[in-house]
Design goal:
Layout lengths: L10 H13 L12 E4 L6 H10 L2 E6 L19 H10 L2 E4 L13 H16 L5 E3 L5 H14 L7 E5 L1 H5 L24 H12 L6 E3 L8 H4 L17 H11 L6 H13 L10 E4 L3 E2 L4 E3 L4 E3 L7 E2 L2 E4 L1
Parallel strand pairs: 1-2, 2-3, 3-4, 4-5, 5-6
Antiparallel strand pairs: 7-12, 8-11, 9-10
Helix pairs in contact: 2-3, 5-7
Length: 325
């Protein structure tokens, strides 16, 4: 994702960031291909969109409403000012990924996603009929229902143009996870915030029974330092859950709870690739899921920063394990 400090707004910035990723790869992961996303701002132009399309490694723009989440101070303040950029994204077949929340301080955080969907999403879909859109990290039942219903009424030859990504934590947890054991749990704070049990069950039901490729994994994993999560800085707790190290196991746990493991492979490996027009597993790498408990690491040490990152379920055993096949 491009919401770094400073954000990745241009092709040249994305090129340098991509190079850093490639330089950090271990030999066994040398074949990994990072696909980049540019940060959409009020100043994104059709020329920037054109350059992104011609780069060969940028596949999407990410819309962060101003003030909605981590490092969103460069985010969009007025969607109407970006019509030319959206038309260019249609022309060059680049995807619009959306952090779908309205950042209104008078609007309850539990309702910000639904407010964005009802206020802006229909307008985007109608005004830009060829624009492919991902509602990233969907958190409410009404959002996944909207996506499903849109496909039913607007699909063309079975190809969706509106899809959603889902995090493991929004499949596994509700709002009360934030207050587990009667205490505030910073490691479970994320944006969009964890929602009600009604929403969690609604998302789980829709996603695990998806047969149209409308939903796929999107971890939204956030490797915040322990100091940032524990408010040692005095600037509040950083929003985000570090779930990447065991994301596949967490997704397996969620799908298994619905007896729908048969839909897990498509959710993890196929639906997203098809939507973005990518080859599915071109190197034929496979993972083996085993119903065997595995222990999550306690922390990921970051010596150069004299700090560490604490993953979801740090030090605990989870019911699934993953190994190369």
């Amino acid at each position: 994702m491009p919401n770094l400090t400073p954000p990745i707004r241009t092709v040249s910035e994305a090129f340098l960031y991509r190079a850093r990723i490639l330089n950090a790869l271990s030999p066994e992961n040398a074949s990994f291909e990072p696909l980049m996303t540019l940060y959409l701002t009020d100043h994104t132009t059709p020329q920037i969109v054109k350059e992104a399309a011609e780069s060969g490694f940028i596949r999407a723009f990410k819309l962060y409403p101003f003030g909605a989440t981590t490092n969103s101070s460069y985010g969009v303040t007025d969607l109407n000012g970006l019509h030319d950029a959206f038309h260019a994204m249609e022309q060059y077949n680049l995807v619009l990924c959306i952090h779908a929340e309205i950042a209104d301080p008078e609007l309850d955080m539990l309702h910000r996603e639904d407010a964005f969907i009802s206020t802006h999403l229909n307008t985007l879909l109608t005004s830009f009929p060829a624009l492919k859109i991902v509602v990233e990290h969907c958190t409410t039942k009404s959002t996944v229902d909207f996506i499903s219903n849109y496909y039913t009424t607007h699909s063309i030859q079975g190809s969706p143009r509106l899809v959603g990504s889902i995090t493991p934590h929004h499949l596994l947890f509700n709002t009360m996870k934030l207050f587990e054991h009667g205490k505030l749990q910073p490691d479970h704070f994320c944006l969009p915030i964890l929602k009600s049990e009604f929403d969690r069950k609604g998302i789980l039901q829709v996603v695990t029974h998806d047969t149209h490729g409308l939903f796929f994994a999107g971890t939204d994993s956030a490797p915040h330092l322990v100091a940032s999560k524990s408010n040692q800085s005095g600037h509040g707790c950083a929003a985000g859950i570090f779930c990447a190290p065991n994301a596949v196991e967490f997704y397996a746990q969620a799908f298994d709870s619905m007896n729908q493991l048969n839909h897990l492979e498509a959710f993890l490996s196929q639906n997203g690739a098809k939507f973005y027009g990518l080859s599915i597993n071109p190197q034929q790498k496979k993972l083996k899921l085993s119903r065997k408990p595995t222990q999550v690491m306690d922390v990921l040490e970051i010596p150069e920063l004299s700090d560490s990152i604490r993953p979801l379920y740090a030090g605990q055993y989870i019911p699934w394990s993953v190994s190369p096949l």
